[in-house]
Design a protein that fits this description.
Length: 564
């Protein structure tokens, strides 16, 4: 495919990487207005905004509310009039590409709305592009709501043929993917229709793996078709999803010529004629990036749900230490309350570690011993339990007492309760329903235990925050004398490797054993995963940072007989 020459009508493009809130049309318009003012002051010809930027992504069943669709139409009209108004003094009039929900004419068939992009120019909607590839895998369910576009064509702006596409439409390049999900390639169709610049507006959720895969995929597309490519992505946390931004522009050779920041709102300018643009530095460490993603997701979840602060249990262990650190960075140390709830089995070392952590972070700390409540439970249940030895029941009682105390503090002070369980525990059911699973957000439920330690060490890289003893002592729930996690579970490096192969790569027992894992470990781990589905169905929403998280992207039946 020949490379398009550099001299084309459209020159300066602003990549408007914003953090919209679902359903906050006024607030989102305010963010767009700020981006437009900045683009005008920098003489941009065109401001490109993310997918469904007017309403926020993903709106899910709000799309079934007529009033929501009507509010979106009013917001688009307001933005169209603003684009047609006089630009800021000293600036030029800048056109806008914005994602919105398009209400379709009643036809008696199909969905009533489309996922669309509008080109706004000089006070009018110059063109509308509809998304054609609607994903239904992992966390996506767009065919539930949207009617796909039935044709692909370019639009002309400033003498330049723009090939506008929406998110998934660019994820089907035959040169990049060994197996494609769709027969059609909208980008190929746009190039055949004369596209001189490819523009993709997206709401592409973050995963650790995707932060490197996505730029390679986009570069391959630009290079394959010999076209400059502009990719603008949403940023921010929306329920269980984190959108990382990291918007990009490429020249026709697939070289990066502009890059927006990761995990924060940004606006960068690219000159498609000269092939030069703003280049924000890319974080090279996946661990630091994951930490930033968890902070962003926690901050936006608390903010958007209206919580002034958070509360969490501080056990002296590494999981609660990591969550407390994320919380302090997300909402500010003064808005975090840590609660230590020692029992007869809690070590002095753990109590000291919790206090040292709270002091290092500058967060609040309250100690509420659970021994009186635990003793009352045991006395009350003694007649019913007569003749039966202590077992996991008494261990779970302690977790449930702690969960009840934390929920009470959450209710009394209006604080968001953060759960502190990690992905390894949630996968294997090494957690107590109505106990340590109580809460409004499961911050690290998609963080395997081995990554928990990596994140904790990254936090300490600039100076000790998490006590070193927290990182070196054997992990333990401290629910019985001398307990360690490895009394019940395999070593975490082994467990996490089995879970990654099973959950993300889909390997069942025979394939896992064939891959070299101990068959007894495999059978035990897979059994635990299967039996714990009912717990996960009742868990707090958790922030997704891997390719396959528990939650909306993993839909398994609870009552089932499949054994793999």
């Amino acid at each position: 495919m020949p490379v398009i020459p550099g001299t084309i009508g459209l020159v300066k493009v602003a990549l408007g990487q914003i953090n919209p809130t679902i359903g906050d049309f006024d607030g989102n318009l305010g963010l767009i207005e700020d981006a437009l003012l900045a683009a005008e002051r920098q003489d941009a010809d065109l401001l490109v905004l993310p997918e469904l930027a007017l309403c926020g992504y993903p709106p899910r069943d709000l799309l079934e509310r007529p009033a929501f669709i009507e509010a979106g139409a009013r917001a688009l009209d307001r933005l169209t009039r603003r684009v047609g108004a006089s630009p800021t003094p000293g600036g030029k009039r800048t056109a806008v590409i914005v994602g919105f929900v398009e209400a379709l004419p009643a036809s008696g068939t199909g969905r009533p709305v489309a996922n669309a992009a509008a080109l706004l120019d000089a006070g009018r909607v110059a063109s509308v592009t509809r998304k054609t590839l609607l994903p239904t895998y992992d966390v996506f369910d767009e065919r539930r709501y949207f009617e796909p576009g039935d044709r692909v064509s370019c639009t002309t702006f400033g003498g330049t043929r723009l090939g506008i596409s929406i998110c998934e439409d660019i994820w089907n390049d035959a040169d990049f993917w060994p197996h494609r999900l769709y027969r059609a390639d909208p980008i190929e169709a746009l190039v055949k229709d004369g596209a001189e610049i490819l523009i993709n507006i997206s709401a592409s959720p973050y995963t650790i793996e995707k932060r490197r895969l996505r730029p390679r995929m986009l570069a391959t597309t630009a290079r394959h078709w010999g076209r400059p490519l502009v990719f603008v992505n949403q940023v921010g946390g929306q329920d269980d999803l984190v959108f990382d931004g990291a918007s990009l522009a490429f020249d026709a050779r697939g070289e990066v010529i502009a890059r927006a920041a990761e995990h924060t709102a940004d606006l960068v300018i690219v000159d498609t004629d000269t092939g030069r643009g703003d280049l924000r530095p890319m974080e090279q460490s996946d661990v630091r990036s994951a930490l930033d993603a968890l902070v962003l997701g926690t901050r936006d979840y608390a903010r958007r749900c209206g919580f002034p602060g958070v509360v969490l249990g501080l056990s002296g262990g590494v999981d609660s230490a990591l969550v407390a650190t994320i919380a302090a960075r997300a909402v500010g140390p003064g808005n975090v309350l840590g609660v230590a709830m020692p029992s007869r089995y809690s070590s002095e070392g753990s109590r000291k570690d919790a206090a040292d952590l709270a002091r290092a972070l500058g967060i609040g700390l309250r100690e509420i011993p659970i021994e009186p409540v635990f003793g009352a439970y045991l006395d009350t249940l003694e007649p019913a339990f007569a003749g039966r030895p202590p077992d996991v029941t008494e261990e779970n009682l302690q977790a449930r007492i702690r969960g009840g105390l934390l929920m009470s503090l959450s209710n009394k002070f209006g604080l968001l309760l953060l759960t502190t369980g990690n992905k390894s525990e949630l996968a294997t059911g090494f957690c107590t329903i109505y106990g340590d699973m109580c809460g409004g957000l499961a911050v690290i439920s998609d963080v395997p235990k081995t990554l928990v330690y990596q994140l904790a060490r990254e936090i300490n890289a600039g100076g000790t925050v998490i006590p070193l003893s927290t990182l070196t002592k054997p992990p333990s729930a401290e629910l019985r004398p001398d307990q360690t996690d490895q009394d019940t579970l395999p070593p975490y490096d082994v467990l996490d490797a089995v879970l990654e192969a099973h959950l993300e790569r889909g390997l069942d027992t025979a394939a896992l054993s064939a891959a070299g894992f101990d068959s007894r470990v495999v059978e035990d781990v897979v059994r635990r995963v299967r039996l714990s589905e009912y717990k996960r169905r009742q868990a707090a929403p958790g922030l997704k940072i891997t390719g396959k998280a528990f939650g909306t992207g993993r839909r398994y039946p609870i009552a089932q007989a499949w054994r793999g």
